[in-house]
Write a structure and sequence with these properties.
The complex is a heterodimer of chains A (112) and B (116). Chain A is mostly beta strands and 112 residues long. Chain A contains no helices and eleven strands.
């Protein structure tokens, strides 16, 4: 059964810092991997989707990488802002199940 | 874009009553929708997969008679929590899969259910 782990569970940084969030998964037979953002009491906003054949995706200040063979992904946030404060969730879709398995999330706080 | 709505956004009900939550894909047809449950400070747990025109597939440990799912059209799935109890209080989120989009799911804003 696929398991997704995110480290750290919580992170607090001063505004302007670059930061990296980590995600690891146990079964490398994935179809794709997604990074989401969740604000308190809200639904999920998709940030980036990386297909299994890709190694990275970029959107604005966000860059996500995927190393399928080692079961790892990172989300890089450049020049962090207080508005980036949220919980970031990593999720993978297995080749077989075609459904998302979520990590436990990283709660990010960017201090002004 | 792909927009998914949920109604209601929050609901309070008394123990023993039933509550229906709607999930709609507003600008695309979704043959597959998913229902998740999220407890405070925890991640999303998949409850069931809903396919239009057929019975839902429930995850292990989810009571199908308690959480009734109906996917009657390509744009609407409903989750009914029957005989609700305080332990059913949670944040329920649906998502819809857009055909031909690398299995990408689009999420609704969630429904906060409180059972008193």
């Amino acid at each position: 059964k696929q398991e997704v782990t995110q480290i750290p569970a919580a992170l607090s940084v001063p505004e302007g810092e670059n930061l990296v969030l980590n995600c690891s998964f146990t079964d490398s037979a994935i179809y794709n991997l997604q990074w989401f953002r969740q604000d308190p009491g809200k639904g999920l906003t998709s940030l980036l989707l990386i297909q299994s054949s890709q190694r990275e995706q970029t959107s604005g200040r966000l860059n996500a990488s995927l190393d399928k063979s080692s079961g790892r992904s990172t989300l890089y946030i450049a020049a962090s802002q207080p508005g980036d404060s949220a919980t970031y969730l990593c999720a993978v879709i297995d080749d077989s199940a075609r459904q998302l398995t979520f990590g436990s999330g990283t709660q990010l706080t960017v201090l002004p | 874009g792909a927009v998914v709505s949920q109604h209601p956004s929050w609901v309070i009900c008394k123990s023993g009553t039933s509550v229906k939550i709607e999930c709609r894909s507003l600008d695309f047809q979704a043959t597959t929708m998913f229902w998740y449950r999220q407890f405070p400070k925890q991640s999303l747990m998949l409850m069931a997969t809903s396919n239009e025109g057929s019975k839902a597939t429930y995850e292990q440990g989810v009571e199908k008679d308690k959480f009734l799912i109906n996917h009657a059209s390509l744009t609407l799935s409903t989750l009914t929590v029957t005989s609700a109890h305080p332990e059913d209080s949670s944040f329920y989120i649906c998502s819809a899969r857009r055909p031909g989009r690398a299995y990408e799911q689009y999420f609704g804003p969630g429904t906060r259910l409180t059972v008193t």
